[in-house]
Design goal:
183 residues, alpha+beta, Alpha-Beta Plaits
Length: 183
């Protein structure tokens, strides 16, 4: 692994559109700087041996340019809400999807920022145990908690007292029907 220069060197590792704190993920892209060129499969195996149980790299490839991060366009999220019934979920989805805009506010470094969540949601559907949302990557970056906040904006008692569980299932390119991984 390559390390940065300077007084306090650190490993050269970067994440593309990393999942927000508190969310689980089954789909992350990480770029690891190497001190020397290596076979991607051997690097993948070596990294997997060093990772803790439950973590693993599914694929590895040689980085060819700095623009790969720009090719990531969408995330697929599971929003787990086991206490909600399918009828309640369908009703709030119909209300949300029927609107052109649903704005929420989130605290950012520069203060409170209001943005449209509806415009960044490509699809939203009811699945067993909750919802699946496909969100666009871009400005503003809509996180799964923003989707829940938007659903609460259209139906204030939605998931009252329940904290949904968020899991990113895919990160990649939108084909019009699904999010496909780049590797």
């Amino acid at each position: 692994m390559a390390y940065s220069s300077g007084y306090s060197p650190h490993p050269r590792v970067s994440y593309a559109n990393a999942a927000p704190t508190g969310a689980a993920s089954e789909a992350e892209y990480v770029e690891i700087g190497l001190a020397e060129v290596g076979d991607p499969e051997q690097v993948r195996q070596a990294v997997n041996q060093a990772l803790p149980e439950g973590f693993h790299l599914e694929a590895a490839a040689v980085g060819v340019d700095k623009g790969w991060n720009d090719r990531l366009t969408h995330s697929l999220w599971r929003i787990g809400c086991p206490a909600a019934d399918a009828g309640q979920l369908q009703a709030v989805l119909a209300e949300f999807l029927g609107r052109d805009r649903v704005c929420v506010a989130r605290e950012v470094k520069a203060g409170l920022r209001e943005f449209d969540v509806r415009g960044q949601v490509e699809s939203l559907r009811v699945v067993d145990g909750g919802l699946e949302a496909v969100t666009k990557l871009g400005a503003p970056l809509v996180r799964p908690d923003d989707v829940v906040a938007a659903l609460r904006a259209v139906q204030p008692d939605f998931l009252e007292g329940e904290q949904p569980l968020f899991t990113r299932l895919a990160l990649g390119r939108w084909t019009g029907t699904e999010v496909v991984n780049l590797l």
